[in-house]
């Protein structure tokens, strides 16, 4: 059996936020790649891989994926967290890539085989006003996307230009106002349904900005507009409010973009308080734990909607796609927006056509990395630390993302 000989990190994209793990075995030409991307802490994850987890892998049999995952998960004694999970997720994906190559099969075949022809995805539509948003939604309808996310201005609405601020306000930026958001988003969907009807399947992302009481009220007010789901209405610190939300309305709930611990999503799934779980595969710890999440969802009638978005990379997308292809509990997959040069650095990447994602029949994850092209994507003077948006309310207090 192949043994692990080397663990390397490859940072790419102009800002260096994509961290790709490459695990090289002692068998000539046999290696695997995985995504350990962490937009806000790329250097920290790379250090964890190169100086902590990577050395622990040397000499181990690459086939022992479950055992390696369990050992690495507790190797630092304290469990979980976005940094450890991202590093662990990248290693796990790379090991599944190796196993698929050894077997001569795509990963989704190793996981039980396809249970769908392709992976339906949802698009991201936005606009500064109702008319512009409706035009963008119509564009994606015409393109054949089965589900479309709708955001109004900025990241979605609720920012007030002329908010009443104290004379010593800490920010000159527009203030986030929960009540303004509560008025704006139902009005947005009323306009969209009036213009486009109820045939399009529409979602909306709150991005955890709202106070819990306002989030419950929003879900209730959106019920007449029959959303496909309402995403991240509550911050992970406030998930207990989903019980009250479920009692108040039937608006489907998607949650989990910030989840990094089983204790966050387990009660939501087992109590059927959400309809879609939104963990990012890398942040969940890789394919190994996420296939268990998918199996758990099936028993409780919950579906998966693995998180992607603009900061993610083609390798994580490929891992999510393999889970989508084989999971009966799959619901919908978030799309990514990659540039042509970015895709050229990842031969074998997933292909998108008419709102559907298609895998190839290559063994493993089916995706590789052209290290020279990946290196050329990196622009040294743009590599820096990134931080979540520092949005504030009128009194200058921080809004948690």
Word description of this protein:
The structure is a single chain. The strands form three sheets. Strands 4, 5, 8, 9, 10, 11, 12, 13, 14 and 15 form a ten-stranded mixed β-sheet that branches. Strands 1-2-3 form a three-stranded antiparallel β-sheet, sandwiched between helices. It has a two-stranded antiparallel sheet with strand order 6-7. Helices cover 37% and strands 16% of the residues. It has two domains: 4-106, Enolase-like, domain 1, CATH 3.30.390; 110-364, TIM Barrel (Alpha-Beta Barrel). The protein is of the alpha/beta class and 401 residues long.
Topology, number of strands: 15
Strand content: 15-25%
Topology pattern, helix = H, strand = E:
EEEHHHHEHEEEHEHEHEHEHEHEHEEH
Main β-sheet description: 10 strands, mixed
What is the average of the pLDDT values?
A: 95
CATH fold call of the largest domain: TIM Barrel
Q: How far is the first residue's CA from the last residue's CA?
A: 45 Å
Q: List low-confidence stretches.
A: none
SS summary, helix count: 13
Reported CATH architecture of the largest domain: Alpha-Beta Barrel
Q: Tell me the count of domains.
A: 2
What value does the Rg take, in angstroms? 21 Å
- Any idea of the CATH class of the largest domain? Alpha Beta
Query: What is the overall silhouette?
Result: globular
């Amino acid at each position: 059996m192949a043994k692990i000989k080397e663990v390397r990190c490859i940072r790419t994209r102009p800002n260096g936020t994509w961290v790709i793990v490459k695990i090289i075995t002692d068998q000539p030409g046999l290696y695997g790649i995985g995504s350990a991307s962490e937009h806000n802490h790329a250097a920290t994850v790379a250090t964890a891989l190169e100086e902590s987890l990577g050395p622990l892998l040397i000499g181990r049999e690459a086939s022992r994926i479950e055992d390696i995952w369990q050992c690495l998960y507790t190797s630092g004694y304290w469990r979980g967290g976005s940094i450890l999970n991202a590093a662990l997720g990248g290693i796990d994906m790379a090991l599944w890539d190796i196993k698929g190559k050894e077997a001569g099969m795509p990963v989704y075949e190793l996981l039980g085989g396809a249970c769908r022809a392709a992976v339906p995805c949802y698009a991201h539509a936005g606009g500064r006003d109702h008319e512009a948003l409706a035009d963008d939604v119509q564009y994606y309808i015409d393109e054949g996307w089965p589900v479309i996310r709708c955001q109004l201005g900025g990241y979605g609405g609720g920012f007030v230009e002329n908010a009443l601020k104290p004379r010593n306000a800490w920010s000159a930026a527009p203030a986030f106002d929960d009540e303004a958001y509560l008025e704006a988003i139902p009005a947005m969907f009323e306009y969209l349904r009036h213009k486009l009807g109820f045939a399009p399947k529409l979602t909306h992302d709150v991005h955890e900005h709202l106070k819990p009481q306002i989030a419950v009220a929003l879900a209730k007010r959106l019920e007449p507009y029959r959303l496909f789901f309402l995403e991240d209405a509550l911050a992970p610190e406030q998930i207990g409010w989903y019980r009250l939300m479920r009692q108040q309305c039937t608006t489907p709930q998607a949650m989990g973009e910030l989840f990094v611990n089983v204790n966050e999503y387990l009660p939501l799934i087992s109590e059927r308080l959400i309809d879609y779980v939104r963990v990012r595969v890398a942040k969940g710890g890789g394919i190994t734990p996420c296939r268990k999440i998918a199996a758990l969802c099936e028993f409780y009638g919950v579906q998966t909607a693995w998180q992607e978005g603009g900061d993610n990379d083609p390798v994580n997308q490929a891992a999510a796609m393999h889970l989508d292809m084989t999971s009966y509990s799959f619901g919908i997959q978030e799309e990514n927006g990659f540039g042509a040069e970015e895709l050229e650095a990842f031969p074998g990447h997933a292909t998108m056509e008419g709102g559907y994602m298609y895998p190839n029949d290559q063994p493993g994850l089916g995706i590789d990395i052209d290290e020279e092209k990946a290196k050329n994507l990196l622009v040294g003077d743009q590599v820096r630390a990134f931080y979540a948006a520092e949005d504030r309310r009128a009194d200058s207090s921080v809004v948690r993302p």
